[in-house]
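Before a colleague's protein record goes any further, I have to sign it off. My question to you is simply how this chain folds and whether the tokens agree. I do not need a full report, just your reasoning and any doubts. This is what I was given:
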Amino acid sequence: MTAIMSEVITWSSNNLMNINWNKTKEMLITTSRDMLGDPMCYDNNLIERVHSFKLLGVTIDDNLKWCSHVNSICAKASSRLHFLKILKRCSLSTEDLLHFYLSVVRPILEYACPVWHTSLTKEQTCQIEHIQKRAMRIIFDSNCIDYENFCCVKNWIHWKLAEWNCVKKI
């Protein structure tokens, strides 16, 4: 590993780049916890070992599960639904509320979905669906709309059937 670190440091120096040791992280992707060993250290710079980190807006776990990412996007989207409720109370039209959802909330749920959506558990899929169903109830004032048919008519992603929807968008 030291040889690889030396190559990275040489490359960065040759390309006039400095390594920020405070931001450098190490993540071991393994299911075996007995092979962990000590964290990496280079020139007295201890590299922090993390179990998950955010890369380009996607949270990656060391076990390649998407729990942290799904929790993160659902929390962020849920906070945006609060603004949707406020807009609803201000008597915005259904069309404007739908536009807000499609431009502010849904991109959070869909961001980089071709990377992670096929690996979601049923529980994670339901967690994302729940956010979308909440938005539908806020926008259309109804609990009795058939969600599956609504997704087809409005071209909303039905996360349980998301395989072809995400691939179709690429």
